Amino acid sequence: MNLSDLPTVPIYENVTFEKFRNEIYPLGQPAILKNYVSDWPIVKAASESTQNVIEYLKQRDTQKPIPVMYGPEDIQGQFFYSDNLQDLNFTKKPNSLSNTLSEIQSDPEGTIYIQSVPTSDILLGYDKENALDIVDASVQPRIWIGNRLTVQTHFDLSENIACVVAGRRRFTLFPPDQIKNLYIGPFEKTLAGPPISMVRLNNVDEDKYPNFKEALKYGMSAELRAGDAIYIPYFWWHHVESLEDFNILVNYWWSDMDPDMGSPFDALLHALITFRNMPDRQRKTWQDVFSHLVFQENGDAAAHLPKKSQGVLGEHTPEQRQHMRKNLVRALAYQAGIMPQS
């Protein structure tokens, strides 16, 4: 199947803050926000010419060194692992924004990519000039700049608004539950943070990844032009292709979860240690326990207890969560041989 033949992500026009928060966001589905940032000064500069938007950026450059990804010509913009999965097929080295923009503009044989750099670090005044009212003002925008390249299918543990500033981008998206058909890659060595799908969408190895055809049944596609934005909900897998010789994207990650609750990813790592290799019968028992106590599939598991006696089964105060973490830290430190059992 051609990726562009997948069902199109729903398109919303004339999106306001209220429309996004009350109609789009509650659905938990990807959405194209058509022309949502077309009035940004940086988008207007890009609409005039590539040279204009490059000058716009260079005039605001703080000259702070930033990490830049460089891929050789033979990878054709497809950042990925080496054949043995022990190395990556690109290098990363520091450079300034202005120098990197000049390198991209010189039409290099390989691929150059500035990835996820906070705009406040490298662009003076940018954040005030190009504001997004959908998210809280405390959410830090990040900028992505490069030539023709592909970001492999991955997920973020955040809500995401991605705004195309220059060029075009094609997003291919899959819902979170398709993790079972996307063949997740290593956790320890990743391309840029989150684990990726090992399926190369530009050249699917159907013999190696036979279940991917099932994921395609739930896939969606979105092609965005400068001024468009896309909402990508929490943990939705997304594959991103930059389709022009010069492309800029600005995105906003945020979470409505209380940061005091900690990282689900950390809990996943602990669960992999503890549960995966249990005897089958014991593991199934704990699956039932988690379904009941953690995911509360049968309703409030502590409702039969008085509030004062619910303890960790009830609603947690910040102090209670901190006490639970301290107990967990002590247990893990003992298991890791860092400290004796108390």
Structural class: alpha+beta
CATH class of the largest domain: Mainly Beta
The backbone outline, from C-alpha atoms, is globular
Order of helices and strands: EHEHHEEHEHHEEEEHHEEEEHHH
| Helix content range | 25-40%
The fold-level CATH name of the largest domain is Jelly Rolls
Total helix count? Answer: 11
Explain what you see:
The chain has 2 domains: 252 residues, Jelly Rolls (Sandwich), CATH 2.60.120; 77 residues, no CATH class. Helix 2 crosses helix 3. The protein contains 11 helices and 13 strands. The longest helix is centred in the C-terminal third of the chain and has 18 residues. With 342 residues, it is an alpha+beta fold.
Secondary structure elements and pairings:
Layout: E1 11-12, H1 17-24, E2 31-33, H2 41-48, H3 50-60, E3 66-71, E4 91-95, H4 97-105, E5 111-118, H5 119-122, H6 126-129, E6 142-146, E7 149-154, E8 159-166, E9 168-174, H7 179-182, H8 212-216, E10 220-225, E11 229-232, E12 237-242, E13 247-254, H9 264-274, H10 280-293, H11 318-335
Parallel strand pairs: 1-2
Antiparallel strand pairs: 2-11, 3-4, 3-5, 5-6, 6-13, 7-12, 8-11, 8-13, 9-10, 9-12
Helix pairs in contact: 2-3
In short:
The protein is of the alpha+beta class and 342 residues long.
What would the keywords be for this entry?
Jelly Rolls, alpha+beta, 2 domains, 342 residues, 22% strand
